[in-house]
Structure formats: structure tokens, C-alpha cells
Amino acid sequence: GAGSGLGRLFALEFARRRALLVLWDINTQSNEETAGMVQHIYREMAEEAAAAAPGVAGDGENDVLPHCNLQVYTYTCDVGKRENVYLTAERVRKEVGEVSVLVNNAGVVSGHHLLECPDELIERTMMVNCHAHFWVT
Predict the structure, then answer these.
(1) What is the DSSP letter of 23?
(2) Torsion angle of alpha carbons 84, 28, 1, 126, nearest 10°?
(3) Quick one: CA torsion of 29, 35, 40, 46, rounded to 10 degrees?
(4) pLDDT digits over 45-83, tens only?
(5) Of residues 97, 100, 46, the one with CA closest to residue 73
(6) What is the C-alpha to C-alpha distance for residues 31 and 130, in angstroms, rounded to an integer?
(7) What is the four-CA torsion angle of 56, 62, 67, 72, rounded to 10 degrees?
(8) Rounded to whole angstroms, what are the CA distances from 66 to 58, 69, 70, 108?
(9) Distance from C-alpha of 122 to C-alpha of 126, rounded to nearest angstrom
(10) CA separation for the pair 37, 16 (Å, rounded)
(11) H helix intervals, the chain
């Protein structure tokens, strides 16, 4: 759930702490927006590092910021669907490597009283808010 709310805030804070990030969200557009914010943080940190080490960049004409291994990867994933989680996890293993820290904060909030909630929404809530934690882990 990196596309908004707490997930976005966690992503930005981990970026400030120089983490390589793998962002999942069901919403591709908002996930990409978060990735853009993360990349902005990475660029700012690289510029600060370059400013702190004058004369390292080059000849002045083709100055390049110091190489920084900070990257962000985005994946569209519906964590409420077990097979989608497993397929996305396998892609991450192949494309990025093993994950060392997992923050799973995706969640569904219906805003309805239980007795007014349609069965489909109750099932979706349980899949995302409960079962997904097992599948993602």
C-alpha cells in the first residue's frame, strides 16, 4: 500500500534513510507518484553529497553527481488476491533480490457498520486486512 497514506509516508521516510525500495500498490498511478517523490529525495541527497565534496565531480562541463546505488522499484499488486501476491513476489526476487524489511500496511476500511456491510466488502476486508499479511510474508 505504498501509493498513499501511511504507505507513502513510510516510503518517503525509508528513502531519507537511504533504503532501496520496492513499492507495491493496487493503484499503479499513485504508486508511481510515490516513486517519483522517492526519486526526488534520492536526487536531493545526491546533490547534497556532491556539494559536500567539491572538486570530485569533474571538469565543470559534464559534471556528474556521485554514483548512488539508491533505487526504487514499483509493482502493481492486489494483495487481496493470493496468486497476485505470489506472482509479484517472484518477480521481485528475480528483478531486485531478497527483501530484508517488509512493511505491509495495505488496508481496506469500509466505513459501514458491520450489519450494513455487503458480504463482498466483508470478504474483501478480510482478504486485504488479514489474509494478505500471511501471503505477503
Answers:
(1) E
(2) -50
(3) -160
(4) 988 888 887 655 444 444 444 445 789 999 999 999 999
(5) 97
(6) 22
(7) 150
(8) 10, 10, 11, 41
(9) 6
(10) 11
(11) 5-16, 28-52, 82-95, 119-126, 132-136
For residue 11, what is its C-alpha cell? 516510503
CA distance 48 to 65: 10
Residue 21, SS3? strand
Cα separation, 97 vs 68, whole angstroms = 18
Find cell 565531480 and name the residue: 57
d(CA 66, CA 54): 11
pLDDT at 55: 58
